[in-house]
Amino acid sequence: MGLVTIDGKILRKMMICGANELTRNSRVLDALNVFPVPDGDTGVNMAHTVQAAAREAAKLNTPNIYDVAKAASNGALRGARGNSGVILSQLFRGFAKGLEGKSVANDKELANALAESAKMAYRAVMKPKEGTILTIARALGDYAQEAEGTDLEQSLQFVIKGANTVLDETPSMLPELKQAGVVDAGGKGLLHFYEGALAGMTFVGEPVLETQSGDAGASNLVPAALSDANIKFAYCTEFLIEAEKPITEKQSASLQDFLSANGDSVVVVGDEGVVKVHVHTNHPGKVMERAIGIGQLTNIKIDNMRYQHTNLLEFSTSQAPQLLPPVPQGPPKEIGFVAVVAGTGLRDVFVDLGADSIIEGGQTMNPSADDIAQAIGRVNAKHVIVLPNNKNIILAAEQAALLTDKKVHVVPTRFIPQGVACLLNFMDSNSLEENLASMNDIISGIQTGQVTFAARDTVVNGKDVQEGDILCLYNGEIISTGKDLQESAKSLADYMLAKGGDVFSVYYGEGISEAQATKLCDTIQANNPSIEILPYDGKQPLYYYIFSVE
Questions:
Q1: How many CA atoms lie within 13 A of 76 on its CB side?
Q2: Range of the domain at 427
Q3: What is the pLDDT of residues 165-221, one digit of tens each?
């Protein structure tokens, strides 16, 4: 006869094995992201979160199931990254609540804990969407209630199988999933965790918590999709070509043909004297030798993707938030600020505007709730206002407020320009309530544009988009795509300014030279002589340009 109850020691094994299984599949989950903008970090965020949960559970050697569930919940709450991680942490929290007062749990008690888990997660989301991780969490609870018999291993197999059938239906619930031809990444990640937990239920010995694919005991479980053998070209090579004379279309086309013959993921964009090159190749030296024939090379960056592959999820202390020096001790001021920012130039902008503590993060670099709570703790103020500056960090910021004794107020800034506007309009002479009301009003009026690249082939509004294409976003929505960076940026600027505005700010990112940015600003100014244009060297990753109109 199989297991009829589980205790804390078995749950600890389940937590560790579940975390390991999700971690191994994290990059596969990232690839399911339906939005082509380079933000596919659902898997990594979930992996960080379950790793934090499992680490806390692994510290306990108790047969009490509630104690282990509570420890895992506390770890997940602090380690949660991104929206998917925060929702996952609420699932852990609900599960622990469902086991409160229990030393061991049988099938009915576990089913009730799974149902409570889903309820807690639904309550945490202001506008729950079906076809997401929430749907799968509820399915797990529903199938657990239906499971017959007291053999817990068989019951969990039944539950996972049932939830997988619901996962297969998620494309019919969300149009964006159907269009991309994928299932929901968060839901699939949750099932990976439960599949690992099922293996942990009968694991012989003590499982080791893995922090990256390829750790002890995991090599034979790494999916084929993540195999090094599938990385045909090892070196991600990027650089700028700066030529004394305008680069002709013939030169650009010839270079593109050469790169295509020696690699893939080829991107050649730019104008006249400056061209940005991106290619995956096995011979970066050969590629650069060919490019030197056109002009000088700058901003050279070469990454070994096979090496990165083996270190994808190395959760080291280098991931900790980069904070300003400690605030001098003394009487606290009334209001302080924490801001999440990516890019040294943007960091300087926020510091100059009065941010007390900066967390290095943003797209693809979501800080955990604990990272944000630590940053809040370093601000010597009675009230701390947090500016997440990214929609995927807002929930983690709100959760961080629960992890500190300070009075925390999260202004839901989704973009960098909104955070800038909040600091610019902060009035020290006004009350906290007046400032918060002003900030929440201001962010709705800031129009944001972003110029980036497609991280994968996809279809947007019925139009085919190829990896490497230029994407133009307006308030987070893709409005156009293109092949030429500067032309695409100009078109986005014209689109935004056609809606009105007096001040147009341009933050140019990594890989964009001052000359390129100046030329773009001059072109925009020529078409809009009455507006004021403010250029800043943001040095932000992923986004060639960030625009704002006020």
A1: 30
A2: 321-443
A3: 999 999 999 887 887 788 999 999 999 999 999 999 999 989 999 875 433 222 222
